[in-house]
């Protein structure tokens, strides 16, 4: 059984209130050194069989048509999850 990982992030020009809230909370928790946080989404798509080029192409199509909102988000990664195939 294979798995494809799709990662989606807000476009750089879109406000990210969740990311800003995390960035403000880190110093209060004693975690320093980070100057910004952006929060995105991760999808894991399981397939019955190996992850082929055709599977990746179908996942990329799903990412752009269903899993992301192209007005405010970018699909930043569509790749086989190597850990799932071991």
Briefly characterize the structure:
The chain has 86 residues and is an alpha+beta fold. Helix content is 31%, strand content 28%.
Provide an overview of this structure.
- By secondary structure, the chain is an alpha+beta fold.
- Helix content is 31%, strand content 28%.
- It has two helices and three strands.
- It has helices spanning 17-28, 53-67; strands at residues 2-10, 41-47, 73-80.
- The longest helix is centred in the C-terminal third of the chain and has 15 residues, at 53-67.
- The mean pLDDT is 95.
Record the SSE blueprint:
Blueprint (H helix, E strand, L loop, with lengths): L1 E9 L6 H12 L12 E7 L5 H15 L5 E8 L6
Labels describing this entry:
86 residues; alpha+beta; 3-stranded antiparallel beta sheet; 2 helices; 3 strands; elongated
Task: Report the strand count.
Answer: 3
Shape: elongated
By DSSP (H or I, 4+ residues per run), the number of helices equals: 2
How much helicity do the residues have?
Answer: 25-40%
Helix-strand makeup class: alpha+beta
Give the SSE order as H and E letters.
EHEHE
- Rounded to the nearest angstrom, the distance between the terminal CA atoms is 10 Å
Q: Give the low-pLDDT segments.
A: none
Q: Could you describe the largest sheet, including whether it forms a barrel?
A: 3 strands, antiparallel
Largest sheet, spatial ordering of strands: 2-1-3
Residue fraction in strands: 25-35%
Q: Average the pLDDT over all residues and give the rounded result.
A: 95
| C-alpha-based Rg, rounded | 16 Å
